[in-house]
Amino acid sequence: AQMAAVAAAVPSTAAAESAPTGEEQRAAAETTVDRNLLNVVFRSMKRTSDLFHAEYAAFPVVDETSAELTKAVKRRQEYGQVIRAAAAAKKAREDEMLALPSTNTSYTGGQVLNGPGGAKLAITGGVGGGAAGEGKRGEILTMLPTGARQKGEDNTTRALLPSKAPMMVKPQWHAPWKLYRVISGHTGWVRAVDVEPENQWFASGGGDRIIKIWDLATGKLKLSLTGHISAVRAVKISNRHPFLFSGGEDKQVKCWDLEYNKVIRHYHGHLSAVQAIDYHPTLDVLVTAARDSTARVWDMRTKAQIHCLGGHTNTVADVICQAADPQVITASHDSTIRLWDLAAGRSMCSLTHHKKSVRALALHPSLYMFASASPDNIKQWKCPNGEFMQNLPGHNAIINALACNQDGVLVSGGDNGSMRFWDWKSGFCFQQEQVKPQPGSIDSEAGIYAMTFDKTGLRLITAEADKTIKMYKEDDTATEESHPIVWRPEIVKRKQY
After folding, report:
1. pLDDT at site 147
2. Which of 189, 237, 267, 484 is least surrounded by Cβ atoms within 10 Å, i.e. has the fewest?
3. Is residue 374 a contact partner of residue 413, using CB atoms and an 8 Å limit?
4. Would you say 342 and 297 are in contact if contact means Cβ atoms under 8 Å apart?
5. How many Å apart are CA 362 and CA 112, to the nearest integer?
6. Cis, bond preceding 326 (omega within 30 deg of 0)
7. What are phi and psi of 321, to 5 degrees?
8. CA 438/CA 124 separation, integer angstroms
């Protein structure tokens, strides 16, 4: 029993001897803390180095071999046929030159031979029995046309020039236009005007809420149509129906039957003032534009809304329709023009070239083009994709109206009473007019709000802020000698902004 007790006591003594003291435990703990702290510090330093030391904006180093291989693959893929054709043509040319008859096997630089087709060829390499020019009969000669050096220099000079020199089209001569009639009758600003298809009369609408019918030949009032409860902003006469469409600031779109002179339909849906109206030339469809930033497409007969063309972010100021795509074009105060797919009811593209509100559009009667007017510029566009053609700068005013006739005369009317007459093809302004307000009205009431040509294109009718309608015609006594074109072509190409 005593021996067992001693044996049991021995391991406990060894364990007591091997157990760490308090100081050792404290040192071990400090070592562990130091190691953990170093790990944290080094990890933080590594993150900092990864974030700030590496230049992420710099491109990686390009492997030249890989880059050349990639270029070679792209060349073969895209231009393989051209490369093979060029190689075949080069080989045929070399074979043809080797087959040339020769009486002398020793040539010196600068000698000239007659090549195929009578071309002069200069020999720049040596073939034959000289020590310096020793070679074999089958070697390929480096043969250049005698004018090669000059041609290279010409190419260098040509590369410094613009690839396409600006072409200034000489404007066509147009007779100047003159005022020949002033019609008074409205008691408010005249905001809209349109001519009927038989060219017998025209209609106008204004701030006095009345639509008036005027005789085109005499300028006398024939009829007044009342029904709108606010200013009439748009008037349009159909070419295929005895209908007159009107829209106003009372949000109403009315269809007038000209056989009974009564309103037969209302098109309800606009949430704000109607700004413009146009009808489709071949379909029984009416398109209206309003301050609610939409253009709405209506079925003439059933009064049902077919589409609500949404996408503009401000007032839609003008709308025009044509039979070919794009069938509907709208201009807005958000500085954009949109071309619409009438079948789908959505925008085909948006033209953002203008920097200010676009208030007027005009279709060319025969060309597949249209023009848009903004205070920054008048721009011409090509359908169907709205390709920009040219600027017509110089009319520095808020342009409310555009009109174009068959002779290529484009007229723009400004908010300050200024008118500009342009040659469509060249964009040359051949006449400038400043309208005079009616006696009794103030100078600020000289604005032009709407204009249209009659069906012959020989009479221009303008609706103005002095409550009058003015009519213009070409000066029959003018000739190219009495009124020459003052045309100075610009040396520098115009800015395309």
Report:
1. 44
2. 484
3. no
4. yes
5. 65
6. yes
7. -125, 150
8. 85
Q: In degrees, to the nearest 5, what angle opens at C-alpha 363 toward C-alphas 404 and 446?
A: 50
Residues 450-478: pLDDT tens digits?
999 999 999 999 999 999 999 999 999 99
Please tell me whether residue 442 adopts helix, strand or coil conformation.
coil
- What does pTM read for this prediction? 0.67
Q: Which two tokens stand for residue 392?
A: 């017509």
Q: Which residues of 1-26 are buried (b: 16+ CB within 10 A; e: fewer)?
A: eeeeeeeeeeeeeeeeeeeeeeeeee
**pLDDT at residue 492, as a whole number:** 45
Rounded to whole angstroms, the Cα distance separating 372 from 255 reads: 27
Residue 293 — left, alpha, or beta (φ > 0 → left; ψ -120 to 50 → alpha)?
A: left
Contact 359, 400 (CB under 8 A): yes
Contact (Cβ atoms closer than 8 angstroms) between residue 380 and residue 486: no
Number of H helices, E strands in the chain: 4, 31
Backbone angles phi, psi at 223, to 5 degrees: -160, 150
CA dihedral 430, 434, 435, 437 (to 10 degrees): 180
Largest CA distance in the chain: 152
pLDDT of residue 149: 45
Angle at the Cα of 361 from the Cα atoms of 358 and 362, rounded to 5 degrees: 160
